[in-house]
Structures are given as structure tokens and as C-alpha cells.
Amino acid sequence: MSRVLARSALLSLLLLVAGCTSASDDKPGTGREAAEGARWQPEPGTDWQWQLSGRLDTSVDVPVYDIDGFDQPADTVAELHDDGRKVICYLSTGAWEDWRPDADEFPKSVIGKGNGWEGEYWLDIRQLDVLEPLMAERIDMCAEKGFDAVEPDNMDGYRNKTGFPLKAADQLRYNRLIARLAHERGLAVGLKNDLDQIPELVDDFDFAVNEQCAQYEECEELTPFIEAGKAVFHVEYEMETADFCPGSRRLELSSLLKKWELGVWREAC
What we know:
Layout: H1 2-26, H2 31-37, E1 49-51, E2 64-68, H3 74-82, E3 86-92, E4 95-97, E5 111-114, E6 120-123, H4 128-144, E7 149-153, H5 168-184, E8 188-192, H6 198-201, E9 207-211, H7 223-227, E10 232-236, H8 241-251, E11 254-257, E12 267-268
Parallel strand pairs: 1-2, 2-3, 3-7, 7-8, 8-9, 9-10, 10-11
Antiparallel strand pairs: 4-6, 5-6, 11-12
């Protein structure tokens, strides 16, 4: 009789353990799905503020801030988090900037022609052995400061006169590298401009950042991100809001009018 009871007790214990394991696997926020789901992914229409110059104004009532990763300290990111904001770390990953603290770490062999902004020069994105560790260090900085995401700028060098014979395949390889480096550190990452490669890259990125798609009548090309449930953070500089906001609302873009210096001032759709 005692042997039967013992077997019964063992069976009950096994069923209890199995039930707990099953419940844990199905529960949101556990296991592999939880790790993947923990990365932030902003939805279409999410309002935002983009400020890269001047004294940072943290009082704009929006859920997302995009700020300079080098210039802003961890305390600022924490302050924005305390106010319920997500914070994007702006980095230039496709161009060398001569004023950055790590500028001397870039060998001359990877620095090409100017990109039109003072002190900025295109990078030879084919030289992954050189650039990967440098970009990893930069994205490490974003993660260590507590940012939620990365906005990697100058991600379409292959369409510009960089001083290097860059091809579309080179850009795809490099952009995917940047996305992987961000994801490995638990950060979301946005595709900056590079409209022609959106169909091939939409699955690799968590949102898009675009400049002047309305002015150049290109905003429809961003719809793969919207259809995937991913925000498109969009800015115009040389138009009136009345001229682009109706189209932005139709396409569910998160659109702003900004001045070129990307200071505090903004007009949202």
C-alpha cells in the first residue's frame, strides 16, 4: 500500500512540475521570446523630439527623444526615463567627425571626401575589420549610458561621392552590421534614410528615421516600415507643415518641421 502511495505522490509531483514549466513557457516576458521582445520597437505615429544642438530642453511633452550619444550624459538619459520617455542615441556611423573624442582612432585609410557638413567625411564602409570594433565601442557607450535605441547616421554613402567605389552590396553589409551590433546590446536601431534599400533592410531595423521625404516626394517608399508596425520618424526643413502634414498623417509618419541646426524648436504634425 505504501509503494502505491509513493508512486502516486511521485506522479503528482511530476505533473505539478510539468504544469509549472508549461505555464512559464506560455507566459509573456519569459524565455527566448521575452529576450527578443524586451527590445523597444516604437509604433507608427509615435510623437518625438529630435535635438542635436544647443542646451537640451527635456520639457517637450513627447514619448521619444533623439539626442546626441556623445554630448549627452547618462544622467540626462536617466532623467528622460524618469519622465517616462524612451531615448535614442544619435551616432554618425557612416562618416568621420573630426571633433569626436575617438576621432584619432580612425586610420586615414578609411576617411574619404567631405559629406557637406563641416568636419565630416565619408567612411570606407568596406573596411569592416577596422570599423566594426570602433562602432562597437560607440554602441557600447550608448548602452552604458542607458539609451533605448541607436540612430546611426550617414547610412547611404554608396549613393554619394565618398571617395571610395562603394556598391549597394557594401552598404547592405555595413548597415546590417550596425543593426547587429545594436541588437546584441539589447538596443533598438533605426534605418536612417537609405530609401532604396528599405525592402531589403526593413526586417533588420526596428524603426526608420528620414529627412525630407516629402520635399522629394519619396514618403511612400517608407510604407514597408509602417506596414511592419514600425515607426517612421520624419523631419522636413524647407516646407510648411500645411504642405506635408496631411500626407504624413495619411501615411502614419511621425513628422516634424525642424531647423537645420536641429535645436529645440519644432513644429509637429
